[in-house]
């Protein structure tokens, strides 16, 4: 068995594996795809101390750093079932993989990340990273002085629109329903901004581009049925971040958004099970934050291991 097993090979899982391995404990890492969301990222300019890099490049150095330690890396495997030590015959935490194999560990870290909900309209995939964006903190500055749209009138959409209004030329916020869902205080702030237009009852129907980059967004007015086109340079999709925690439902405490609820040391509601990164209820989801929380949870798990004198 492992002393410390990490499920997830994104920045949170990689950082945790390195911190654990440096303690000299038997460490494993199992991931569907090493690198996680970072693999899908084009430019990264907010990973502090590295002025600018690209996702695949950062993933390659992450992997090289992990491989520098004695970490048992298992990729292309999906974790499908968690059994807490109180319920397992071995007295250890058990993780069953979709392939049928079972991994056993004294302490477990869940770092399965999250995925952005997509609009699922023509052009979205084609122009992902070429005008279609999901993270205003990451990509906002790329649209300085240009017109953009934000899709989604919940808290994250309205926060994104307020944030972007300070950087870009103009923001059009589109909401599918007939009113915004965001907190009143945010809506008030949004309406006070001179370079923001709000369109409700708008169903996005297509992302339009010139083969290189996004040039427009097409939407249908759900009241009149009319099709409209907005000329713009960027589209920020803010219709939800979905944590990869479906397989854990009922096993440990999740927030109403499905995020794993963690304490200050990354501990979950199940003894010996820790979590870090985008899959948790940490309020901000970023590479540097995921790495910090992975390191934090690995230290939390190490503390737990030296205190549980089972073996
Ligand atoms: P993830 O990166 O999501 O990694 C999750 C890992 O878990 C993956 O290895 C995955 O394969 C694995 N996994 C999931 N489920 C299972 C399972 N059941 N079994 C086994 N393995 C599983 N942040 C920034 O700071 N700067 C940026 O510029 C930036 N740009 C972004 C651009 C895009 C397009 C996207 C999508 C995100 C961007 N982010 C950016 C956010 C950043 O990528 C995330 O905050 C960060 O990757 C979260 O790390 P994580 O380790 O928690 O999860």
From TrEMBL:
Keyword tags: Disulfide bond, FAD, Flavoprotein, NAD, Oxidoreductase, Redox-active center
Residue ranges annotated for the FAD/NAD(P)-binding domain, each copy included: 2-294
Needed cofactors: FAD
Domain of life: Bacteria
Transmembrane segments: none
UniProt record similarity statement: Belongs to the class-II pyridine nucleotide-disulfide oxidoreductase family.
Role summary: Serves to protect the cell against DNA damage by alkyl hydroperoxides. It can use either NADH or NADPH as electron donor for direct reduction of redox dyes or of alkyl hydroperoxides when combined with the AhpC protein.
Subunit-level organization: Homodimer.
Name of the protein: Alkyl hydroperoxide reductase subunit F
Record organism: Balneatrix alpica
